[in-house]
Design brief:
With 101 residues, this protein is an all-alpha fold. It has three helices and no strands.
């Protein structure tokens, strides 16, 4: 169960990194395909403004996924103490000692 949660956390982190890479690739492709009369600095500022929330969400997904994976991986490594025995223990019989004379 925990290994699947670890894998899910790593998948979320990988998805966040993939999203961030695609946003960066989209920026490069968008700025490379500008018409000659367009100002690349202005186009970059507009693209960055429009994709700011998307980049933030990508980093948040990456951080959350890594935190989830690390937490579950670490809890797998912690050695738990065995549960206490729930049956009451019987007291050992006490040997009767003779009364002094």
């Amino acid at each position: 169960m925990r290994s699947s949660v670890t894998a899910a956390g790593l998948g979320i982190a990988a998805g966040g990194l993939g999203l961030r890479a695609l946003v960066a690739l989209g920026r490069v492709l968008t700025l490379a395909d500008l018409p000659p009369h367009a100002d690349p600095t202005t186009a970059a500022a507009v693209y960055d403004t429009l994709t700011d929330a998307l980049r933030t969400a990508a980093w948040a997904a990456t951080a959350a996924g890594l935190a989830l994976a690390l937490t579950t991986w670490l809890t797998l490594r912690v050695r738990r103490t065995p549960p206490p025995d729930e049956t009451p223990r019987q007291a050992a019989p006490v040997a009767a000692t003779p009364d002094p004379p």
